Amino acid sequence: MLLQEVAAAGAHPLSGTVATWMWLLPLLPLAGFVLNGALALAATYRRGPSDPTVHADHTHGAGHDTGHAGTAHPDHDTAHHAPTRHRYAGLVSIIGPAVLFAAFGLALSIFGAMTRVDHLEQPFVQRYFTWMATGDLRIDAAFQLDQLSMIMVLVITGVGALIHLFSIGYMRDDPGYPRFFAYLNLFVFFMLVLVLGASYPVMFIGWEGVGLCSYLLIGFWFSDTANADAGKKAFIVNRIGDFGFLIAMFLLYAHIASLDFVGISQRAADLAPGIVTAICLFLFLGCAGKSAQIPLYVWLPDAMAGPTPVSALIHAATMVTAGVYLVARSAVLFALSPVASLTVAVVGALTALLAATIGLKQWDIKRVLAYSTVSQLGYMFVGVGVGAYTAGIFHLVTHAFFKALLFLGSGSVIFAMHRAYHATHSHADAQDMRNMGGLRRYLPWTFALMWIATLAIAGIPLFSGFFSKDEILAGVFARAGHSTLADVSWFGIPGNVLLYAIYGIGLFTALLTAIYMTRMMLYTFHGPNRTGETERSHLAEAPWVMTLPLVVLGVLSAIGGWLNIPELMRFLGPPQWLHHWLDPVVGAPALAVTGGAPVHLTHQTEYMLIGAAVVIAVAGILFAVARLKPARLVPKAQAVPERGFARVLANKWYVDELYDRSVVRPLVGGSRRLLWTVTDKWLIDGLLVNGSARLTGFFGRIGSYWQTGNVSTYAWAIVIGVLVVLGAFTLR
Amino acid sequence: MRDFLGGIGYERWVLPALLLIPIAGAILIYVARIGRGRADDIANAGSARVIALATLTIEFLVSAGLWWTFDTGRSTWQNVVMKAWIPEWGANFVVGIDGIALMMILLTTFIMPLSVLGSWTSIREKLPAYYALLLVLTTGMIGVFISLDLLLFYVMWEVMLIPMYFIIGIWGGERRLYASIKFFLYTMVGSLLMLVAILYLWVQTWQAGSPTFSYDALLRSVDVGRTAGLLLFGAFFLAFAVKVPMFPFHTWLPDAHVEAPTAGSVILAGIMLKMGTYGFLRFAMPLFPDVAMLPAVRTTMLALAVIGIIYGALVAMVQPDFKKLVAYSSVSHLGFVMLGILALTMESVQGALMVMINHGISTGALFFLIGMIYERRHSRMIDAYGGIARVVPLFAAMLTIVSLSSIGLPGTNGFIGEFLVLIGSFRTQPIWTVIAATGVIFAAAYLLWAIQRILFQPVTHPENERLTDLNAREVVIMAALVIPILWIGFYPQPILARMERSAAQFISDVERGATERSGSARVGN
Amino acid sequence: MGLFYTFNFYLFGVLAIISAVTFVTRRSPVAAALWLVNTMFCLAALYVMMDAQFIGAIQVLVYAGAIMVVFLFVVMLLNLGHASDVTDVMSGKTRLAAAIAGLLFLAELFVLWKDDAPVPIAPPVEPAESGVIAQVAAPLFRDYLLAFEITSVLLLAAIVGAVVLAKRKTT
Amino acid sequence: MIQEALFFSAVLFIIGVVGVLTRRNAIIIFMCVELMLNAVNLSFVALSRLYGIAGQVFVIFVMTVAAAEAAVGLAIIISIFRHHENVDLRNINLLRG
Question: How far is CA A474 from CA A117, A499, A506, B385, in A?
Fold first, then answer.
């Protein structure tokens, strides 16, 4: 890595400080990946014979089983023998989390250095080497550190470290233990590259890298077709999103010939409005792919096939929020195109609503949380869509805390259930709520902490969710009155009507969120236990290595709100800290470029909004407690399938089937029948190639018909020839 | 390094040496066979393998020198060697390289030793003939890349065809005869038309007084009317379109790949497909820039290229045979190259050149891997495998990395090429580029689906339980291919710098030629 | 040109045609051969009347004498003399077609004949005093010597060929 | 007299052609070919009175060729006869394509 200190960075206030070690942040997880990967391969790789062909014939012939030990793979439910810890489990358990905690420590010290610098205007960009330079395209391998990426780094390394700690316990008995940590570290590396990238292409490395890691991790237990399919589906849907991201980059390059954020923010103003809207819409297509928004959200619920820590880290806290980060990072562009911003907000709201409705009727605990994530992501996009970037990022951070807590909580529940079923060799589904019930007596810590997270996500005051969700709804309401968005029309619908509608949907979704989260808590922890008599004795709290992260996340979910306390609650602590922190990156440039004024509400409207939100949250919880009767639930085996509207929700509005029949099947079938057999085999090969071969054959046969071998035939041929020639002469 | 090579007059003898070393190797193989009886299977003809490997490694080391001595500043031909060949016709043995030829030579000499290593145990009979053919094939290929005389180019083009015909025809799979004949006829028809075009050009120069085949002279003096230009360009186009292969002319590729032995497929995909695009870059477009720039001609070629991308990807998705799948993926990748060349911006042409190199490496690696499991399981059908990632973890890791590079994941070499092609073509052909970009999605679809059905999912066939993992030789091959995949992915700058000048020269040749029709010669020679 | 000369010329011409016709229609090969010999004699007469005395002599000697004798010899050797029972002639239809072809041939020649009579290029050769044979021998051995040698090689090849082909295989 | 000679040669030639086309016996066909050659000789000699002695020289060459051809032809016929017991053309079609 040849360090080229760019002159500007030299003068940068951060250049002297520990921030210069910024490149170490991604490098640490990469080192973790390399080490763990090597350990994984070393354990399982056994060198093949020098002459495989001969060897192959022997083994088939002799038919004896060489008995590949070591990688015998106990699936979830085929554990007949005592779980064997992986040879290098100890070593890997140290490398994996240690690398993350080191990165987190470094991130904290850099954060410290940044806070000491009073008002950081310019981002701190470090260029290492020119990655691609042809013609007038010049992309450097460069990292950019500013307030926004600092927040993201802290979340990624912090929550990541906790989740690594958790997975030491959760994945303890898995034979692919080092491989799991290798992929997890690789994921954190790519996520950091995504966040720290100084230009869109460098960010794109991280963007597709995290897609790769989610593919590898979702399909971690690949010997089960469903998991492998889920992984493949995730990657391809992400890839469709990446297609949008690519087109956005090409548009940017074609029109302002620069792809790095600093360059774009300078030249964004001279982009034509149509072009800016196109760029932003394509960028949003990318976000929809990565952050599971309509229409590309279908992969996230299936991604639950991966191990729970993966769901917590990738599909709750970090990767799925990449889309929100992208929109925040290109705040300048989105500010310039109100139509695109409105689209983002509308799609966000619709996704939130749709996912919340589906969440109501899901039985798998992880699917409930998955749809809740899609819904909360919808909220974040509403936030950044309407221009309240700080609110969006704030909700991203708090969501990372309580959603990671919820997932890890469900992880410890599943771990306990699995251990119980494992002990009694039963094959019941360890993730289905109908087999749970009344677990508060057996998992007290998890129960308490999960309630904190539920209250947070529902929006009960003083918990982190309340502050961030309320901030978004306030942002929407404020801009509904008068703002650049309000007076632009979106496909005929005037802006302000749209914004009020979005606010309404937001409130209603908050109600649904409160309902399905309470439903989950009731069915899992309250009411009679449905796991089964013998298993009940085996239900116990997970080891401390799994519960400790839960506690830390619990604390963070509770006090997360203090990050950005609204104005009128000054009594609680320093108000709007995150707002001031992110202003130079997201606030000022966006407003400067559009010449808009910061929006604020009168105090009584804010009180009114907060009141409404609190009422909604409490109503949701009480409604769920009143309506739902956990006692009447029966274990999954005897459960009767729902009917009517409940069935539609349980089957996820049949969206998967719709996609399959409208896109996948015609594409695959069409290309098999139409493209391959018809055009390739029949038309080109059959008609032209072999056809011409048959044609020459045909002429050949005609020729040989005349060669009868009989002399008189030849004599006649000669005479006829002569007659014809002479005839020609006579006609001359 | 540069001064040491300069000292021994490296510039003057390197290119002829590159042509002669393989021939010497081939002869040595047969010399070593004298008095060793007729049996030519692995047991007692192993020496042929060793000699071939040694020769090709020397060839690689000699050609590696070019990497340092290549002067990125000069836009004229370098390491030029001129010998009289047939003075009466004005045909000389003129060889020289520029950025494009340099990279193609290095790709060839890099892949050839690996292909010998790849067929170490899979070729079991008639070894001397096989390895001699490989060596002659190397000469043919390098000859095509370095010849600056059209007649020499044509001779080398044919020298390259014949060994490949035999390699597919003798050591191939079940339908090898059909495949090799089809391959041969397809390319033959194209190249005969090209010969007619070359002779037509030659007659032009002959009537104008001094008959010559030299590329630069023709570049300067070619001034045929519009219709003649169209016909000539058509002839060149057909010859190279068959080789690329562009959409309608591609049906020989799947058959040739499926039936060729591992090394045959690797060389065919890795290097011989680049002959077509190299032909466009060197001969078809610079010689007839006005015809190439005709809107009708350019749009049809663009259409064929983009159809090739989508069609190749879609059809690859439904192939039961893994080799056929990779063959159709090659059609798709080379569609990108053609799109890059036709877009005529600096980024897109450089991107096209990068895709040519990267495709050589990643598809070559894919074929090696298929060859390896074919040696163990004797089946190329995707469904014959399943869940072998648990049984052969290193193989699974390699296949995943190479597939990701073929899909074009950022951080691997595939991305560099495709990104540059698309970002470059977008500036001049936005609509075509957007359509072509969907090819990126299908690429992910077909390859991931394939490796999922092979590596993941439960183990269905009992034989897969007894598969053995890669041995030392195979690890060396894969390491030699995976390292460039990652290295080019993260640091492609040296390659781009070396090709920059030639790409600029190509664009100016075509654009200036198209405008004022009298193609200007390269400065000095 | 004396009346006697033209009369004889026509006489031998017609005689040649008649014997040729009968030759074609004879069943037995021997009879056919003899009629052919007769045609050759008439032709020899015509040659002599056209001042090609040497050619006439050669005709009688080589053609009628040698070649026809060989034919007769072969006919006798394979005792094909008697008219073979199976009809030695093609079916009626073919014969009719052949006749039409012949007439068509003749008609075309006649049409071609009408428009341009052969115009003499070289002066008509009057019988030089240096004797008949010298007239032919001089060009033969001077201008066409090479052709002459080639024909000798041809004859050699023919002889060897004939012997090899006709030899009874002693395998 | 040249006109008449050429006329006679044409008629003889046509008789030869008709002979070849109608007869089935190999020997007879051979003789017809000889007749055709003689017809040609006649026209050669007739025209040599107009175009110089070369005509007659050429007649000599024609004769040698005819002799050679006759020799080889008859040898073939003998070998065919030995194989087929007759020289009927209909069943000699070894060279069928």
Answer: 31, 11, 11, 57
Contact A723 C109 (CB under 8 A): no
Angle at B253 between CA B250 and CA B254, to 5 degrees: 110
Closest CA to B317 of B439, B173, B183: B439
| Between A164 and D79, residue with greater pLDDT | A164
**Would you say residue B504 has pLDDT above 80?**
yes
Verify whether the Cβ–Cβ distance A223 to B372 is below 8 Å.
no
What single DSSP character describes residue D95?
T
- Number of other residues whose CB lies within 10 A of the CB of residue B347: 26
Could you report the per-residue pLDDT of A15-40, keeping only the tens digit for each?
Answer: 777 888 888 899 999 999 999 988 88
Cβ contacts of residue A33 below 8 Å, gap of 6+? A182, A183, A185, A186, A189
D92 has a pLDDT exceeding 80: no
Burial class (CB in 10 A: 0-12, 13-18, 19+), A384: buried
Please report, as a single letter, which amino acid is at residue B104: M
Angle between helices A177-196 and A24-44 (to 10 degrees): 160
Type of residue at B438: T
Token pair of A148 as six digits:
């926004």
- Evaluate the CA torsion angle B395, B398, B401, B403 in order and state its sign: negative
pTM of the model: 0.82
Binary contact (D48, C155; C-beta < 8 A): no
Residue A720 neighbours by CB under 8 Å, 6+ apart: C101
Mean pLDDT calculated for residue range A65-94? 55
Residues 6+ apart with CB under 8 A from B13: B81
pLDDT digits (tens, 9 = 90+) for B73-98: 888 888 888 888 888 888 889 998 88
How far apart are the C-alpha atoms of B163 and B429, rounded to whole Å? 39
- Which residues of chain C lie closer than 8 angstroms to A727, CB-CB? 108
Give dist(CA A699, CA A691) in Å, integer. 13
Residue A134 bridge partners (DSSP): A137
pLDDT, tens digit (0-9, with 9 covering 90-100), for B305-322: 999 999 888 888 888 899
Residues 317-356 of B with CB under 8 A from A: 317-319, 345-347, 350-351
Which residue of A710, A716, A723 to mutate against D (max D Cβ within 10 Å)?
Answer: A710
In residues, how long is chain D? 97
Higher-confidence position of A167 and C171: A167
Q: Answer yes or no: is the ipTM higher than 0.95.
A: no
- The answer to whether the CB of B485 falls within 8 A of the CB of B403 is no
| CA–CA separation, B63 and B79 (whole Å) | 12
Q: How many CA atoms lie within 13 A of D2 on its CB side?
A: 15
The number of CA neighbours under 13 Å toward the Cβ of A623 is: 14
C131 alpha-carbon distance from chain centroid? 25
The overall average pLDDT reported for chain B is 87
Band of pLDDT at residue A46, cut at 50, 70 and 90:
confident
- What per-residue confidence (pLDDT) applies to A62? 44
| Residue A605 near residue A499 (C-beta atoms within 8 A) | no
> How many CB atoms are located within 10 Å of the residue A548 CB?
15
Q: Half-sphere exposure of residue A314, counting CA atoms within 13 Å on the CB side?
A: 34
Cβ contacts (< 8 Å) between C89 and chain D: which residues? Answer: 22-24
* pLDDT at residue A68, as a whole number: 36
Question: pLDDT at position C73, please?
Answer: 87
* Strand segments (E) across D1-97: none
Q: Say which DSSP state C124 is in.
A: P
* Percent of the residues in chain B that have a pLDDT greater than 90, as a whole number: 39
Six-digit token string for A20: 């210069």
Q: CA-CA distance, B5 to B21, in Å (whole number)? A: 18
Full 3-state SS string of C112-123: HHHHCCCCCCCC
Residues of chain A contacting residue C104, judged by C-beta atoms under 8 Å apart? 723
Q: What local confidence, expressed as pLDDT, does residue A65 receive?
A: 39
